Every structure is written in C-alpha cells, then in structure tokens.
Amino acid sequence: MVAPQPANREPRLIGRGREIATLWHHFEVAADGRAGTVLVAGEPGIGKTRLLEVAAARAARAGALVLRGGASDAEGMPPYLPFLEALGQHVRACTPEELGAQAGPLASILATILPELTVRLGQLSASYRLPPEQARLRLYEAVATFLAAIAAERPLLLVLDDLHWADPASLALLCYVAGHVRSARLLILAAYREGEAEQNPAFERATAELTRQRVMSTTAVDRLAAEDVAALAAEYLGAPLDATAGRSLFLHSEGNPFFAEELLRAWLEAGALARPAGGGDGGAYALTSPGALTLPPSIVSAVRQRLTRLPPEIVELLRTAAIIGRTFDIALLAEAVGQDPEPVEDRLQEAARACLVRPGADGGFAFGHDKIRECLYEELTVSRRRRLHGFIGRALEALPEPADAQRLAELAFHFARSGDRARGAVYAQRAAEHAMHAYAPEEAMAHYRTALDLVDDTDPRRGDLAVSLGEAAMLAGAEQEAVAAFESARTWYVREGDAGAAAQASQRLGQAWWRQEAIEPARAEFETALGLLENHGGAALVSVLVDLGSLLAGNLHQQAAGILHSRRALELAEHLPDEWPLVAASRNLGNLLVRSNDLAAGIPLLEQALALATAADEPVEAAECCAGLASAYFWQGALRQSRDMTMRRLTFARRCHDLYQLRHLSSWLAFLDGFQGRSGEAERRLHESRAVVERLASPEPLAFLQYVRGVLAYLGDDYASAEAHFQEAVTLFRRIGPGALVWHLGSLCLSQAVQGKVAEAQACMEEVEALVATLPEGTMPTADPLTYLSMTALALGDRERLGRYYPKLTVFRGQFHDALIDRLLGEVAALREDWETAGAYLETAEATARREELPWELVRTLEAKAGLALAQGGRGNAARGRELLEEAIELLRRLGNDGEARRLGSRLRTASHPAPRPRLPAGLTPREGEVLHHVAAGRSNREIAEALVLSEKTVEHHLTSTYIKIGADNRAAAAAFAVRHGLA
Predict the structure, then answer these.
(1) Which end of the chain is more exposed for a tag (fewer CB within 10 A), N or C?
(2) Helices 17-31 + 48-61 axis angle, to 10
(3) Does residue 815 or residue 442 have the better pLDDT?
(4) Contact by Cβ (8 Å): 585, 546
(5) What is the pLDDT of residue 278?
(6) Cα separation of 665 and 291, whole Å?
(7) pLDDT tens, 885-923?
(8) Please, which pLDDT band fits residue 78 given cuts at 50, 70 and 90?
C-alpha cells in the first residue's frame, strides 16, 4: 500500500504488481478500441481505491482522459450519483464547442440528469414524448453515445468507486453502457467491497447481467504477504521495522494495508515505536514495550483510538460532516454548525494532517476512508442526529442556487430525519418526481414511501402520492408493491368521494394485476373503473374500454365482448378534441378485428391509427401501429407490404430507442427474406437480431429468432437442423405459456414428419390439436397451427386428419401463414378428386406466389399443379404436368436446393415413363377400388369420405359406378366381390 509519510517521498504501490499489471492490460486493450469493464473486489481497507488511483494516474500519463465518480452509503443520494460525479467533471471542464460536439443531438436528453449542460450550452431543443421505459432507454443510449464520443478523441478511463453502494439506476445504466460501447476506447474500472455486495440485490443483478453479456472481468485484491507488510511499514516510516515489530504488525493487521497503517500511526502517536538512539538512517524501528501495548481488535477500533487523540472541537466538527455525507462543502458545514468558514477550514486542515479527511479539487473535503465516517456517525445519539439533520437541511435550503437532483435528495433525507414532517414530505415528493424524471423508479419509490410516511391520512396529497408510488413500482417491475399502492389510493379516493381519481387508481390496479397474468382480478378492476366512469366519459373512459376490450379478447378469448367494448371506445374517441384517444382506440380495435380474422375491417383502422400517430409525431404509437399492420399484411399474403411496414417500424423504433420494438425486427425481416428466397440477407439479419436479443431478459425474442432459423433451415432442405432449431424455440415458448406455444409448436411436427419420425410427429400433432381446441374457431391464433397440422398430415398421408382440418382451413383462404393457404387447400381438394376446386385454389396460389416473389411457395404450388394434372390423366394433362415439374426443378436449382431438385427430377422421370398400373377387375378405377375396400371393411359413406378426404357425394358417385361395373345392388354383394378379388 501507500506510505503517506514522509511528504517528500513519491508514493508507491506495494505488493500489487500482479493487480496493476492486470488493470494495465485491460486498459491497453480498451485503448485499442475494445471497450471493457473491470471490477476490483476486496474487503474494506484492502487498497481498492488506491489501486484505482494508481491505475488512473498511469492512464493519465499515457494520454487518457480520466473521469471519476463514486457511490455512497449515505442515504438521500440522487440516482446515477457515480455517473453524475464523473460526467459532471467533464461538463464543467470542456469548452462549450467541445461539449456541443460530444453531446450532439442528444444533449437535451442528457440534460435530464446533467442540468449543467443547459448552463454550458444554452437552451436545448425539447425531445418528443415517450413512455417511461422507452425514455429511460433513450437516456441510457444518450449517456453511452456521450461516453463513446468523449472516447473518440482519446482513450477514456471511467473510474467508479464503492460500486457495492450504487443505486439500481446507476447499475442499470452501467450494464447498458458496458453492452453498447464495445468498440469505444473506454475502460470502466470499478471497485466494490466483498461481503457487502450481497446486501445490494441490484448490484448482484448487475454483475449477473454483465457476466451474461461477457463484458466484465473481475480482479480480486488479496491481503498483503508478510514481506509486503514489512515493505509498507518501511515506506511509511522511512526505515524498516525490526523482526519483532514486523511480526506483530503482520499478525495484528492480518495483511490489511489500511489497518496496518492505522496500527503504525497509533504506535507512533503513543510513543510505542522508536528507533534506537544513534541508529542513524539505517536503524530499524522497534516496539518499546510490546508486552504492554494495547492493540485495537479491528479497523473501526483503530479509527476510534485515533479520534480520541484529536481536540474535541475537531471531532465535533467531523461528526457534523459525517451527517452531511462522504464528501462535504466547507460553506455548508460552517452554516450547519453556525461558524465562519475560515475557522472551520482551519480545523479541517488539521484533520487532514491527521489523515482523517482529504481536500478535494473543488475546494470541498472528503473522508479519508469510509470507516472513518462510519465511526463518527455511529457515535452520535439519535437526538443529536435529529438536530444536526435539521441544521443541515435548513443550511441546504438557504443556498441560493436552484435545487438540483442531489440537493433535493439531500433536503428530503435531512428533513425527513429532523422531525420536520412538513418539509420532509415536500422535499421527498419533489425528490421522487425528479427521480421519475430521470427514469430512476427505485429511487423514486423510496422517496414516495418517505413522503407517505410523513403525511397523515387526512392530507389531500395522500391519494396522489399513493398513485405515484404505484406508477414508480410498475416502472421498476415491482408489481406487488404497485398493487398495494393502487389499492390504497383507490380506497382513499372512494372515501373522499373522488370517483374520477378512484377510477384511475382502479385501472392502474387492473394493469398491475394484468402484468402478473392475474386475469380475473384485472378484469374486475377494469369493470370497477368502467362503473365509476360511466357518468364521466372523456379520454379516461376510452382508455378503460381499450384495456377491458384487449383483456377480454386477448386473454379470455371473448372476442365478441372485447370487440364490443373496443367499438364503443372508438365511437367515444371520435367525438373528443384530442386525437390521442382516437389513435389508441383505432389501433386497439384494428388489432382485435385482425386477430378475429376480419382483415378487411381491421387493416383500415390500423392504417388510420398510423396516419394519426405519424401526423402527431408520436413514434412509439406509430411503431405499434406498424407492428400490427406488418402482421396483418403478412397474413393477407401481401409480404412486400409487410416488409415496407416493417422498415417503417424500424425507423420509428430507432427514433424512440425502444429495445422492445427492436426485439423482433431483424428476425422478422429475416423471416420475410427466407420466404422470398434471400437466404444470404436472411442470415445477415439474424446476426443483427442476435446482438439485440442477447441484451434482453425476456426469452420470447430469442425463441422467435430460433423459430426463424428453423424455418430457414426447413426451406433449405436441412430438416435435421430445422428440427433442432424448432425444438429449442419450443422449449423457450413453453416457458412463456400456451398462448405463445400454440403459434409455433406445429413447425416441430412438420420437421419430424418429413424426416420419417412418424410417432414423434403424431404425438406432437395431438398436443397442437389440444391447444387449438381451447381457442375460438376461425381466429388468427388458430391459423398457424392449422397450417402446420395440414402440412404435417400431407407429409404423413394422414387423410383422416386432413378431412378434419380442411373445413377449418377454408376460413383462411387467400391468406399466408408460413405457407399459402390456397396452395394447401388445393392439395387437399385434389386428394378429394374435386378437380375444379383444386385447380381454382392452385391458380390463386400461383398468382400470389409470383406477385409477392415467394419462390419456395411457387415451387410447391407448381408441384401441386403438376400432381393435379397427372392425377386427372390424359395426354394433355401429362404434358402440362411435366412442364410444371421442369419449371419447379429449374427454380429449385436457382435457389440452391439440389436435394429437392433431385426429388422432383425423380418424379419427372416417373411422369415421363409411368409404370403400368395393375388392372382391377370389372374395369374399376383405382379410386373405386379404394372405396370398395372401405365398403368391405364395413365403413359408412361418411367414414369413407373422411378416410379418403372426399365429399360424401363423391363417395356415392363412386359407389354407383362400382355397383354397375360389378353387377351388385347392395353393400353386402359389393363386399363379397371385394373379398373374392382380394380387394378387402
């Protein structure tokens, strides 16, 4: 460690060669454009801070810019404190021109937490409104971009001390920055205490996230070895200790550098350590009376011993400073103790000479170690602390500058603990509002709780404070606390007779339940809110109707009731002056109609909502409209329009920095690319998508990415890989729930069927059928599973299942659900020998495939048309069938699918040289032979129709023809004929 004495000696780091070499390696890597984050871990007093200081000094000598910040264990600290300290230094040091270039167009967003930017750069243009979560991500991106811009000019070392005390907002920002500036010349170097980090759940979450992102390294700082403790003592004293003193120092300090220095200082001040008379510069220090020496048992005890040797007035001053915090301003301290600044500064300088505090570059002071402040704070009685908190609060209140985030947090903290409940509540509410403005909901929650504790039940602010606490809890993901807060607010408003506010609280309570998938409690709260608002109307009523309609249709599958509420919401919104409710109501009803398979009615409403949102410059709402339209166009079979709408959505999502919107975009574009034969572009987009979804906690985006990979592999004839990707996607979708699983499980069935895994495919089909049975028939959630079930049944030749799926599939004719529905309907109709219907469906499918540039679907449609022509027989049909197969083979070769091309080539050769069919008795056709076989098995006309995927009328036609040919007049005679001729 460092020897603070004598003053003329250059401090050096002792026993930390390995650690400093490791940190320097990480800095050199970062300086080369590969950003990193290094956490330095160790116990209190082990030398983490000094290690950071030495690394920072070395980086500065190498030309790097060093910015420093730290967290604090003092209550009442503002959110983002480490970043505020570090970036605040830079904002104050830069010229306005440099600052403007680095902050760029995001300056107004940065000013949310760095108000100094407005002072330095002047009035900044306001940014557009975003929901809190998107606004928080926009702020994080602004900070990350700002740091990257600073690092573009020269390497940047961001030093963050005491990270174990960091607030959740700071830690979330750290994770975002670390994951988004990977090519910047930036090293984040942070220190934390082992053993105390576990007491901060946000810190544990942050380290887990940094580990998941693979952007963090950890360096442990261990205790010093005996020889290093001896070297530290020699550096501190200017001469070595003798062997006895050295053993005693190592034994009692246990290799902790701070404790070792405290012991040395205590021995010197007590006169227990001396050099022999006449020993000269080379004489070693020895303990004068080692047997009688009183040794402190801990660092805290050592600090307390040192404090007892100071003048009482200095200790009293330091106790007040300990109430202020880790760092403190001379003027504020003087105001709090009622003294002039000059004598206060003189006493602080004396404390600095005793190494209890150290002066800062800004003229303030900081405690030399956290343990010093802790000792001073703990020595104060509760009543004394309360008085000092009041003095400090009033001193802060008297300062002339406007209250910023830190000042508000400090005012709330001190007044809340001073007994001044009125002031405490006011400043706690203001600090909470400022924290929400800075997108720090956990900190806002703490302040709102304080405010609620300080106001009584009759205070007119109580209901609003409870709602605000619930809002902060929702943003923080603390839904249970949100439920309690909204319930409290609703009860209070009802008692006060405020129906409108009670309805708002009920609606927010319903949303809190909904987010937890507690659907029935959510429904009850929405209906309560609806009842409270029936006589009020307005935008609030529209909002409740939108929520209730979405819940009923989307979660309870009550499509008609959900659409009814949503229609009423739209009717009300059309008569309101504000367009925002109209946008929300149009989008909601449009989505519900689309999901109910009324594309013709739903798409115009979504287009109307998008036009309104675009005109109002509401990028979040516009992105949501684009999402609905992209899906609707896709299902409509208009894939080019779906692509165009997805690109518009991408533009809006990037504007509002919405990771939620971005989570699917690259995967969806890859999905479209795959169907349109752009395999190279699809792979590139999937690589982009991976970079986005890896930063998200939800498993759903990764599940969809794996699903798209499976589709691409299936289209490329790599069925084994397709099954593996589908299996991984299905595993993730199962974790989400049956509502997500039903859309995607069918793909696994198909991939198994085409590989001949019949038992697995059939078991999978049974599960899909069970999921579909829980959904309203004819709605969009049933379309994808029915599509995959039909394709699987075709692959397995399962005519019985095809007979059941066919009528359900017809309601989606003209649509696209990973396959052209018309193509599937045409194939099934051909099996039913309904040649005219099959031809019509396949003609429509071919036209769509050519118009929308769907080469894979075109191949399958051409093959189906060829099969239809060949099945109908005749020379013209045979020639037409061969032409269609030749076109399909050529298309497959252009797509690079040689396996499928070879399969169709074999079919073409068979069609060119068909094997002679075995002749059946009495001139029966093959289909008549099949019908006769089922008659012999005792099946009814309906059962035969289902088995052969025919209509009952067609079966009757075949039976009439068969009876005539074999000379039978009833089913018994026909069955006997079948047995005699081996057809049974």
Answers:
(1) C
(2) 40
(3) 815
(4) yes
(5) 55
(6) 75
(7) 999 999 998 888 888 888 888 888 887 766 666 788 988
(8) confident
Backbone phi, psi, residue 284, to 5°: -90, 150
- Please tell me the distance from the alpha carbon of residue 64 to that of residue 85, in angstroms, as a whole number: 18
Q: How many CB atoms lie within 10 A of CB 440?
A: 30
Distance, CA of 595 to CA of 514 (rounded, Å): 20
Confidence (pLDDT) at 12 = 66
641-664: per-residue pLDDT in tens? 999 999 999 888 877 765 666 778
Q: Which CATH architecture has domain 537-657?
A: Alpha Horseshoe (1.25)
Spatial separation of the C-alpha atoms in residues 291 and 353, rounded to whole Å:
30
3-state SS record for 476-498: HCCHHHHHHHHHHHHHHHHHHCC
| pLDDT score of 551 | 93
Map tokens 């089922």 to a residue. Answer: 934
- pTM to 2 decimals? 0.73
Q: In what helix (H) or strand (E) does residue 893 lie, and over which residues does it extend?
A: helix 875-895
Q: Residue type for 727, please? A: Q
Contact between 706 and 671 under an 8 Å Cβ cutoff? The reply is no
Among 479, 414, 371, CA closest to 49: 371
Q: Identify the CATH assignment for 17-220 out of 3.40.50.300, 3.40.30.10, 3.40.640.10, 2.60.120.620.
A: 3.40.50.300
Nearest to 732 by CA among 745, 750, 720: 745
Distance CA 159, CA 188 (A): 6
The CATH code for residues 700-912 is 1.25.40.10
In angstroms, rounded to a whole number, what is the distance separating the alpha carbons of residues 166 and 193? 12
Terminal Cα distance for the chain, rounded: 96
Distances (CA, A) of 565 to 181, 527, 537: 46, 11, 14
Mean pLDDT confidence for 155-181: 93
Q: 364 phi and psi, to 5 degrees?
A: -90, -170
Phi-psi region of 896 (alpha: psi -120 to 50; beta: other; left: phi over 0): left
User: Taking the domain 923-980, which CATH number applies?
Assistant: 1.10.10.10
Higher per-residue confidence, 547 vs 4: 547
Task: List pLDDT tens digits, range 915-974.
Answer: 666 788 988 888 888 899 999 888 999 888 877 777 788 888 889 999 988 988 899 889
Question: Strand, helix or coil at 830?
Answer: helix
Q: pLDDT by residue (tens digit) across 31-73?
A: 999 999 999 999 888 889 889 999 999 999 999 999 999 998 7
Each residue of 887-908: b (16+ CB within 10 Å) or e?
A: bbbebbeebebeebbeebbebb
Query: Given the DSSP bridges, would you call strands 286-287 and 156-161 parallel, antiparallel or unpaired?
Result: unpaired
DSSP letter, residue 275: P
284-300 pLDDT per residue, tens:
888 887 554 555 656 66
- pLDDT: which is higher, 495 or 273: 495
The Cα 455–Cα 478 span in angstroms is: 23
Q: In what order do the strands lie in the sheet with 186-193?
A: 65-70, 156-161, 186-193, 36-42, 216-220
166 and 77 in contact (C-beta within 8 Å)?
Answer: no
Q: How far is it, in rounded angstroms, from Cα 512 to Cα 525?
A: 10
Task: Return the pLDDT at 4.
Answer: 39
pLDDT in tens, 583-599: 999 999 999 999 999 99
Residue extent(s) of CATH 1.10.10.10 domains in the chain: 310-380, 923-980
Place of tokens 């010349």: 185
The count of residues in the chain is 984
CATH 1.25.40.10 occupies which residues in the chain? 537-657, 700-912
- Across the chain, mean pLDDT equals 88
The domain made up of 310-380 has a fold known as Arc Repressor Mutant, subunit A (1.10.10)
- 298 neighbors 256 (Cβ within 8 angstroms): no
